[in-house]
Amino acid sequence: MAFLSDTLARVKPSPTIAVTSRARELKAAGRDVIGLGAGEPDFDTPEHIKEAAIEAIRRGETKYTAVDGIPELKAAICAKFARENGLSYTPAQITVGSGGKQVLFNALVATLNPGDEVVIPAPYWVSYPDMVLLAGGTPVFVEGPRETGYKITPEALEAAITPKTKWVIFNSPSNPSGAAYSAAELRGLTDVLMRHPHVWVLSDDMYEHLTYGGFEFVTPAQVEPGLAARTLTCNGVSKAYAMTGWRIGYAGGPETLIKAMAKVQSQSTSNPCAISQWAAVAALEGPQDYVRESRAAFERRRDLVVSALSACPGIDCPTPEGAFYVYPSIAGLIGRTTAAGTRIDSDETFAAALLDEAGVAVVFGAAFGLSPAFRISYATSDAVLAEACARIKVFCEGMT
Questions:
Q1: Is residue 323 part of a domain?
Q2: What element of type H or E holds 250?
Q3: Sorting pLDDT into bands at 50, 70 and 90, what band is 359?
Q4: CB 94 within 8 A of CB 251
Q5: Domain end: 285, 315, 336, which one?
Q6: From CA 279, how far away is CA 247, in angstroms rounded?
Q7: Three-point CA angle 397, 310, 351, nearest 5°
Q8: How would you class 22 by CB atoms within 10 Å of its CB: exposed for 0-12, middle for 13-18, buried for 19 or more?
Q9: Are residues 199 and 311 in the same domain?
Q10: How far apart are CA 299 and CA 149, in angstroms?
Q11: Aminotransferase class I/classII large domain location, by residue (predicted)?
Q12: For 335-345, what is each residue's pLDDT tens digit?
């Protein structure tokens, strides 16, 4: 009898975490490495949020809380959804977890049975397919190619839906591409979903506040209220408020689903960190200056990176609408050979050679389900990004 679970054999470790860990190892060994793999704001958590956490500690808010969130945070989340998204939820329709990843995982574990299918647009966040597999479901991929701006079309979504489809996972702005769907583009997809009442929508809105150039964010249940009864709208404080380590994610959805997710959480982690929950209240209810300031910084960095990479031979770098990633195509480099003699036959080979020969760590496109490409996180300083892009340019120019 095998010791490890057969289910575990169906999944793989996170490639993005692996790239970041490898970059750290090389740095520790004395190598000059620039790591552009981590999807984490480089800014500090705003002071008023940190102070709220300190005050919570002083008040003794260090005990167990309700399994899926304190009333004060649920109320703040309801107000946020109403204020920013036009969505009406009661506290009983809100769940809070230890990060957005746990919220998504809880939903899938609570609903998937063997044979259930989950439609996932590609390129996708690396964790979506593996969470589906761990929950016993079957991921079904729909490609959003470079030609459509890394977005799926209504026709492609329609073709992927079967009687076995239980969920469609929707992520806008996208990790890894930064692509975001306009209201009109999203309407085309929600029209398809309205024709399939057995399909639920899991909307991952984690990068909601990071959109650029006047782009207006919308979420599925906002565009099509008819989907609200079968939509879980997920979000969190990690990206918007530079609170990745605080581990607070949340979601709004039908009460029956929220109760089922709470049951899963009650037998796994129980409540999220009490102190982090009070910090999240301050984030949602307090001043929003940081959100505006960080958005401006990220937009400047996006423009810097897109401009620099577009000057690299063989690289095609579209301008994303949001998040803090670019997802350049390297179709023009496949089949070429680096100055050190490495033949580029895939984006995984490209990323490995870029790290070994130029000291720049990126994540290869195959990890996100769409090749040949790579992802850069521009959540670091302008100077670091300029140096990284300069190294990539030299690396590409050296190919034959």
A1: yes
A2: strand 249-252
A3: very high
A4: yes
A5: 285
A6: 11
A7: 60
A8: middle
A9: no
A10: 18
A11: 32-392
A12: 999 999 999 99
